[in-house]
Amino acid sequence: MNAPTEPALRIDWLTADDGARLRLGHWRPPTPRGRVLLLQGLSEFLEKYTEVAAGLAARGFEVWSFDWRGQGHSSTGEEATADVFERHLNDLDAVFAALPRGEPPRLLAHSMGAHLALRYLHRHPRAANRALLCAPMIGIRTGRWPLWLARRLARLMIALGHGRRWLPGRRRYTPLTIPFAVNPLTSDRDHYERLRQRIEQDPGLAFGRVDWYWLAAAFRSLDRLLLPGVAEAIDTPIRVLLAGQDRIVDSRAAVAFARRLPAADVSCIAGARHELLQEAPAIQAQVWDAIEQALIGPR
């Protein structure tokens, strides 16, 4: 898909109830016919979604997004390390309150953002009128460690006073240091190069801390999402879009969870890596077909 003309990104700032500052972004077409709230994944930032926002604006939708605390140029969030996912959910309250009045937004969410979207929709069933969740974080792939060991290590490191230590391999987990050929995020060199250039131009965007506190909080949030009755209570129409070559999240866990949702369907794009919204043109075409069907077309 050829990239549409990019609308201007307007930056505003929100102050959360604990004083943290959240960077809120807004892309607006000349005559919007609806709005999309875009929820980023882990270690992402507004500028990474410029092309996605342009595609939505070309279809008549204004787009709102924000940097989660600890990411992009939002506050670092160090005061909320022990349960950062609950803090993220409270921050979402401030973001929804900042949206203009009117019809609830459509949600487009990626990975950690998709996980938080599900938890938020459980708390606030009428917050959005439909959602597309790309590679949702319903389960975490823990690489060479079995899942049970990763859980125990997180608890142990925090108990030993090392909760603020980076997870192994995460301190330099950035396109500035990971060659395109071995990256697990996208098969598209152009997207990867644009991401690298954006971080070079604004080093403050470089990825936020992912430490043992974060991992323990992620496991707690996953446990809460997977409790009996939670999925069954989320009745927002949802499309779950999976990546066939995802090495970051557990797609099987996402399928199992989606089967419990009252109004959800699941599809998988073969050959796609984790960042479906930043993928190669042939994959992007399928992603935009899903966006058209799930968010823009009739329900």
List keywords for this structure.
eight-stranded mixed β-sheet, Rossmann fold, 299 residues, alpha/beta
CATH topology name of the domain at 9-142 and 222-296, in short, is Rossmann fold
What does the overall shape look like? globular
Main beta-sheet annotation: 8 strands, mixed
Instruction: Provide the CATH top-level class of the domain at 9-142 and 222-296.
Output: Alpha Beta
Query: Proportion of β residues?
Result: 15-25%
- Computed over alpha carbons, the radius of gyration is 18 Å
CATH superfamily of the domain at 9-142 and 222-296: Alpha/Beta hydrolase fold, catalytic domain
Under the CATH scheme, which architecture of the domain at 9-142 and 222-296 would be assigned?
Answer: 3-Layer(aba) Sandwich
User: In terms of per-residue confidence, which ranges show pLDDT below 50 for 5 or more consecutive residues?
Assistant: none
| Number of helices, counting only DSSP H or I runs of 4 residues or more | 9
What is the CA–CA distance across the termini? 24 Å
Number of strands: 8
Main sheet: strand order:
1-2-4-3-5-6-7-8
What class do helices, strands and sheet pairing give? alpha/beta
Residue-averaged pLDDT: 92
What is the helical fraction, as a range of percent? Answer: 25-40%
Order of helices and strands: EEEHEHEHEHHHHEHEH
Describe the structure.
The chain has a domain of 209 residues: Alpha/Beta hydrolase fold, catalytic domain (Rossmann fold, 3-Layer(aba) Sandwich). The chain has an eight-stranded mixed sheet with strand order 1-2-4-3-5-6-7-8, sandwiched between helices. Helix 4 crosses helix 6. Helix 1 links the parallel strand 3 and strand 4. Helix content is 35%, strand content 16%. It is of the alpha/beta class. It has nine helices and eight strands.
